[in-house]
Every structure is written in C-alpha cells, then in structure tokens.
Amino acid sequence: MAPLMSVRVVDGFARGEGRLTARILGVLPVARARGAATDKGEAMRGLAELPWRPYGFREGPHVRWEAAESGRLRASFDDGKTQAAVEFEVDGEGQVRRGNAASRPRMVGKRMVETPWSGVFGAYERIDGVRLPTTAEVTWLLAEGPFTYWRCRVTGFRMLR
Length: 161
Description:
single chain; mainly beta; 7-stranded antiparallel beta sheet; 3-stranded antiparallel beta sheet; 58% strand; globular
C-alpha cells in the first residue's frame, strides 16, 4: 500500500461460512466481509489452494472431481448451502500449473462483484516427501487488464502427522 505500511488480511472458510477481514497495522479495520458471496469466494480460495494440500485431491464429503477437457480437472464444492468450483490445468507430470474460475466474488468498496480470476503455480519441489509448488500468484482478470494481487514463495513446509 505505502512504504512502512502493513496490512493484515485474514480470510477463511470453516463450518460452512467464509470470512474476510483486513486491518492496517493489524489494528485499524479497513475491510470486512461475510455472507453468501464471501462463503462462495472463500470456498473457491480453499479449492484453489489444494496444490499445497495434495492429500485433499481426493473426494471428500463436499468435494467432487471431474475431468474437464484434456489436461483439465474441475473441483466442485457443495455443502448444501454454498456451491463453488475451480478448474485446474495439469501438466503431463500431474502438476497443477493453473487454477481459474470464470466468476469469483471480489470485494469492490462495500459490495461483492463477480469477476474472472486465475492463479498460477510453479517451481515444484519435493519437501518433506511431498511434491509441492513453491511459487504462486493470483490475478483478477479485470476489464482494464489483469491485476495480480498476491504472490508467494514457499520457503518451508512440514507435514503434520
């Protein structure tokens, strides 16, 4: 945002509900979202993060998988209240290279706007016996052009047993 300015964003999806809060310097609230659109957006984020939870690539109580076109998988979440889906592009080695959705809720001011969205994964490494992407970035595909709002580099990983 600005030099020496930190913003802490906490988002999650638990027990069927999504939540998002953002605070400047960890104290001053600047954004908060709850409700059906937030539930959907957070469920989609959870699906998109599956490459970091490879054991989550099995069908669970609310997650179903289907083959889309060649080299693509579609993960769908439906808990009876919230429905969400993300499509993954997978390479010949079974590594997820991209996740995307034609429409994901995005906070604009105080309202949620459905917006195309995409994430890219790369630099796969074997860490603690698990092959994981160690780089990623997430982009809103806006009418005025792509806006990458999140980038990461994994520097450590430990399986909880």
